[in-house]
Amino acid sequence: MRRVMAAAMVGAALLLAAGCSSSSAGTVSSSNGSGNTDPAPVTVRLGFLENITHASALVGLREGFFSQALGSAGTLKPTAFSSGTQETTAILAGQLDAAYVGPNPAINAWQKSGGSAIKIVSGAATGGASVVVAKGITSPAQLKGKTLATPSLGNTQDVALRYWLRQNGVTTTSTGGGDAFIKPTTPNSAAVLEFKSGQIAGGSEPAPYDIEMVSDGGTVLYSEPGVTTLLVVTQSFLSAHPAIVADLIKAQIQANDFIKSNPATAQSDVNAELASYTGKPLKASLVAAAFKEITFTNDPDASSLTTDASQAVSLGLLKPVSLNGIFDLGPLNQALTAAGQPQANS
Asked: Does the predicted TM-score (pTM) go above 0.85?
């Protein structure tokens, strides 16, 4: 404040001070050194699933990679979900800014919003989901008349199971009919308990739940290929906070690098982080077995996303949809280049 020497100047000085205060409030910004210039810390609402296929998110949280990347520019508000379908609902309801999801939930969010809700900004994992069946079942034909669990209708494992069954001459319907009966079951741990008690003949589940079913006497009849986990952000958040999104991607890359270079610690991190949400840690051997069937990669495997969409459409679980524009891999490729890693293609 300027020192005023005459009473006649007080009013003018106060008006000047008020004007300066108003102007500076619109320009003062904080930065974490990575290019974020938001006027105040941004709360990033991040969703993920209680699956080991979402280990990138779990390690990123446990090791603090997200917090470190965001710095003073943002704070993270993580939320765990039981299924990608629930995440899609939350995204479309404006309750999440970013989320780790399976390919089919990402496609559903894109289709339901007319291509206006989300962008896929990075991959996270491929593999890590299997169709596990009871002992003695050795072919899809033996599943006729049997009940099988999936996380939710239209999710990635649900589509994969139904399409695989149809390829092998076993029909299903979205209402529980057909040759084999598909029972959406949430949470995934409930499917494990139903399998163990003999209520269902098997299921299509992501790790660690498929591994748990195997440990309970099950047999893997089919290992599902392709992308399992993607990082998506809402288009509104990407437009408003591109530097924050770049920070999330940086943390995603750090998490996958950590998983590859420190597998034992990463497995421990994932188990501890999962236990903080589920209330009970897994056996270390189950976590280790789950990691063996997953490839943690930042490449979103665009071709398998197209395959997932066409399979869902053919099953009547998704209306025909164009995926043109669903990817925005510019920030990812910039971060990969900075890290000395190969770029991803869309």
From this structure: yes
